[in-house]
């Protein structure tokens, strides 16, 4: 999308709390970050604004009182079964994967404290968000028969690359963040997406840009990842005539010099710039846009929606509009999350918590293998912290909401 000492039954391997949306942080010399201080010197943070339905209409936020509790009734018994998490735990976009892992950690902590006779561990597999590296670790996941459920992979590209391996093994894999729409078109029978896909996010984003923001001309810029390409396609198509082809641009993952794209965009004087990609590139891109005199509203999706974007972009991130087909943590859960992890929750934290809770409920019900986990998840119909979880036969949620955020 990550490193910190875990407690209880969580296998140690993640260190250094990273900055997340809604909390302040500061970068360390080794590239990781720790909580504390005011984060970026600008004092900016990412704040939730409105929740929108697939048609772009505002949805009232409600306090959920019947969300599934990972603690259960405290009477569960189990042995010899574990879960796994796969995603970027290090690398330029590590904060996104850490959010998921720390959400899972909270669910496990609650479960294991309440159920002394059912201690469930989660094994971490670091992919750095790289499809090639993900294919190298995937065999290690599927050959461990004690692993009966996988939280991940986190990114769309690595999910596409490893999906056939997980599907062939019969291991249920539940992603909290991979949003490329084509992932559920591969015929995989054990893949479940815990949030809306980019078709829902992209179409709502486009309507928000031209409607609420009143943008008549939008420059769409995409990176070369499966996520960036897929999301940009939907945004561009939904924008229609508002998407100006004269300033559409493509960049590469890992790119740091965006002078050509900045010059192209500046020459078209757009009302808004939409960036499809991750925060590692979005931060220097928006910085160079502002330095180049481009004042258009900067907008981007869930791949950019992390406090690391703000910390790295500084004051250039001011007033950026960021979106996510995920939900922010309510105050009570946020307090528990921060007490355990030493940082506030970010995007995908709630989804990581909810999906882990679902798999824990399966184990508590007596599920002991992958086949049992698959049947449990397929038939699941329950309320989570931020949304209802029930999947169709392709592994897509029955409902999808989009949260709009703003940097201020």
UniProtKB/TrEMBL annotation:
<keyword id="KW-0732">Signal</keyword>
<dbReference type="InterPro" id="IPR000709">
    <property type="entry name" value="Leu_Ile_Val-bd"/>
</dbReference>
<dbReference type="InterPro" id="IPR028081">
    <property type="entry name" value="Leu-bd"/>
</dbReference>
<feature type="signal peptide">
    <location>
        <begin position="1"/>
        <end position="21"/>
    </location>
</feature>
<dbReference type="InterPro" id="IPR028082">
    <property type="entry name" value="Peripla_BP_I"/>
</dbReference>
<feature type="region of interest" description="Disordered">
    <location>
        <begin position="25"/>
        <end position="46"/>
    </location>
</feature>
<comment type="similarity">
    <text>Belongs to the leucine-binding protein family.</text>
</comment>
<feature type="domain" description="Leucine-binding protein">
    <location>
        <begin position="81"/>
        <end position="392"/>
    </location>
</feature>
<protein>
    <submittedName>
        <fullName>Branched-chain amino acid ABC transporter substrate-binding protein</fullName>
    </submittedName>
</protein>
<keyword id="KW-0029">Amino-acid transport</keyword>
<dbReference type="Pfam" id="PF13458">
    <property type="entry name" value="Peripla_BP_6"/>
</dbReference>
<keyword id="KW-0813">Transport</keyword>
């Amino acid at each position: 999308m990550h490193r910190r000492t875990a407690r209880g039954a969580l296998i140690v391997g993640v260190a250094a709390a990273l900055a997340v949306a809604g909390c302040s942080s500061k970068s360390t010399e080794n590239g990781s970050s720790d909580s504390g201080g005011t984060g970026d010197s600008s004092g900016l943070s990412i704040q939730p604004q409105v929740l929108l339905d697939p048609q772009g209409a505002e949805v009232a936020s409600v306090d959920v009182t019947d969300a599934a509790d990972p603690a259960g009734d405290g009477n569960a018994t189990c042995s010899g079964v574990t879960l796994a998490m796969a995603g970027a735990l290090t690398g330029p976009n590590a904060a996104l994967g850490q959010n998921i892992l720390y959400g899972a950690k909270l669910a496990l902590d609650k479960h294991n404290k309440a159920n002394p006779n059912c201690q469930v561990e989660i094994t971490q597999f670091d992919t750095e968000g790289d499809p090639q590296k993900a294919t190298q670790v995937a065999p290690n996941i599927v050959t461990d028969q004690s692993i009966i459920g996988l939280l991940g992979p986190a990114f769309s590209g690595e999910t596409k690359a490893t999906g056939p391996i997980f599907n062939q093994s019969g291991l249920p894999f539940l992603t909290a963040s991979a949003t490329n729409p084509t992932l559920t078109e591969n015929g995989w029978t054990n893949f479940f997406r815990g949030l809306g896909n980019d078709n829902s996010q992209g179409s709502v984003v486009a309507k928000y840009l031209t409607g609420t923001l009143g943008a008549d001309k939008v420059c769409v810029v995409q990176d070369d990842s499966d996520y960036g390409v897929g999301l940009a396609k939907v945004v561009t198509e939904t924008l229609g005539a508002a998407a100006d082809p004269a300033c559409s641009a493509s960049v590469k993952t890992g790119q740091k010099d965006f002078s050509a794209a900045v010059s192209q965009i500046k020459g078209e004087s757009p009302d808004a710039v939409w960036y499809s990609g991750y925060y590692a590139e979005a931060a220097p891109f928006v910085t160079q846009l502002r330095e180049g005199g481009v004042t258009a509203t900067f907008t981007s999706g869930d791949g950019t929606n992390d406090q690391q974007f703000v910390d790295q972009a500084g004051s250039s991130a001011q007033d950026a509009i960021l979106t996510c087909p995920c939900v922010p943590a309510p105050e009570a859960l946020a307090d528990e999350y921060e007490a355990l992890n030493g940082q506030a929750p970010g995007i995908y934290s709630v989804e990581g918590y909810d999906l882990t809770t679902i798999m824990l409920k399966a184990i508590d019900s007596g599920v002991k293998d992958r086949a049992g986990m698959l049947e449990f998840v397929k038939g699941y119909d329950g309320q989570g912290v931020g949304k209802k979880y029930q999947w169709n036969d392709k592994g897509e949620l029955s409902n999808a909401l989009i949260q709009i955020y703003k940097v201020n």
